[in-house]
Amino acid sequence: MSVPPHGHGPQPGYGQNGPSPFQQHYGPGGMPPQPGPRRKFPTRIAVLIAVAVAVVVAGVAIGFFTFGNSTSNTHASDCMHIEKSGSTTTTKTVDCTDPGANVKVAVTRANRSGSCPRGDYYRYTTGGKNRRVLCLIPNVQQGDCLSGLQTATTTYQKVACADPQKNAEIVKVVPGAKDRSACEGSGSTAARWYSDPEEAICIKS
Q1: Amino acid 89: pLDDT
Q2: pLDDT in tens, 137-158
């Protein structure tokens, strides 16, 4: 009886059943292992995440309108920039030396139904929960030129006097004026007067 060389067992002959290549790669049965059932993302968690995202987006929007355009901390002697684009009017408190500071707060009223003192004030009601009334006057000096100045609007802007959009020039500012007669003889075509603080603004259009 012959003994096969060391390390070599008997080889299967032709037609003998050896291990299937499928069994070699995938184990008994010859089929690849099937993945387990997918874990479904709980619907409740998805809804909660969607709500949280919506709250964050809303908070950002509210923050922008509350703080970006807030006039809740505006006081007398502060200046504002008011601008209109289409049907939207934007306001913000700025330094009075800012070229865009077109109005100054002369008087504030805590009650939104409050009235302004005697004079040609622009009456502006702030938004938000604690509404107030701001009594505004033009933030101008002698020699300033304006574009878009009209009787009942605060959205005029300061421009260069050579600007073709200019429609008004401030020819004189009279602090302490008792009435509009302080503008007589100044070459102005219109005058605005305010009782608190007393001041006349002489305008040539």
Answers
A1: 79
A2: 999 999 999 998 876 678 889 9
Q: How confident is the model at residue 117 (pLDDT cuts 50, 70, 90)?
A: very high
This prediction's pTM? 0.63
Under the banding of pLDDT at 50, 70 and 90, the label for residue 68 is very low
Copy the structure tokens of residue 165: 């959009």
- Residue matched to tokens 């009017």: 89
DSSP letter string over the chain? ---PPTT--PPP-TT-----HHHHHH-TTS-PPPPPPPPPPPHHHHHHHHHHHHHHHHHHHHHIIIIIT--TT--TT-EEEEEEETTEEEEEEE-TTSTT--EEEEEEESSTT----SBSPEEEE--SSS--EEEEEE---TT-EEES--TT-S--EEE-TT-TTEEEEEEEEEET-SSGGGGTTTT-SEEEEEETTEEEEEEE-
* Separation between Cα atoms, residue 79 and residue 104, nearest integer Å: 4
Those residues with Cβ within 8 angstroms of residue 34's Cβ, 6 or more apart along the chain or in another chain: none
Query: Domain residue spans in the chain?
Result: 79-204
Pairwise CA distance, residues 96 & 39, whole Å: 62
